[in-house]
Amino acid sequence: MVPPDTAHAGVGEGERSDGVGAPAIPPASGRRWRIAAFARDRAAFAAALFLVLVAGAALLAPLLSPYDPAAADNLLRYAPPGTAGHLLGTDAQGRDMLSRLLWGGRVSLVVGIVPVMVASATGLALGLLAGTAGGWTDQVIMRLLDVVFAFPMVLLAIAIAGVLRPGVWTEVISITVVLIPYVGRLARTATLLVASMPFIEAARAAGATRTALLLRYVTPGVLPPLLVYATTLVGLMIVVGSGLSFLGLGVQPPASDWGAMVSEGRIVLRRAPHATVLPGIVIVAVSLAFSFLGDGLRDALDPRSRRR
Length: 308
What we know:
Blueprint: H1 27-40, H2 42-59, H3 61-64, H4 97-133, H5 135-149, H6 153-163, H7 168-195, H8 198-205, H9 210-246, H10 258-265, H11 274-301
């Protein structure tokens, strides 16, 4: 898995003023154009609305779920979708599928979002340091990241989770560790790209300090590609987290998690296929939504796709 090309989402020519050059489009106008460009992308806009609904449903799970997700009813085991009182049916233990999906969304979204946020912050710091310092600092940071990068992402996450005690935070820690090299390499590449642009040389010639260059000019140019990449990673990490739960390395019963639900439902796949199919559909839908959202952000933040 190689970080995407950062040339598309970097800093556009003439987009910055900061006393260095005249912007082709004022900042406020540029923001309005980006919002309008994102809104025109129907797939990305629909994906964003869908994700808002999913996140809202997960946050409001205590109010929306009709039953306790861990409450079992032996008289209603394997109830199919549409059963009275159980819109999406029940699982092998008679637990309400809708309630478990709502509560499981809390865990799955945390496992997908938190590691990406932590890894993005850490990778951004390492990438900026490596890209701006250069020399032995760059070599040491990148070689350390390469050591982790050399291992397949999923296998390394499984190995780390296997050493730790199974649970939500085990998933978060293992996924965070394996993500840092990917984000760090992207941040370094974007840093080198932005640092080579003419407005950086102009700011340096104007007397800008190294700290000012890093905070005012380089970092804002690195954030757009990092934001796009992080958005696409969230969907992938939800799948990875679900896989860890499927293997028994994540959330433990009776807690709800989409991956754990798939794992539990596979045992009764022939008798109650909905117990596996429904959480599987949710995982795929949410992952695709984050992918479409990332594509929309990439296009909106790409100055070369601006319609004149």
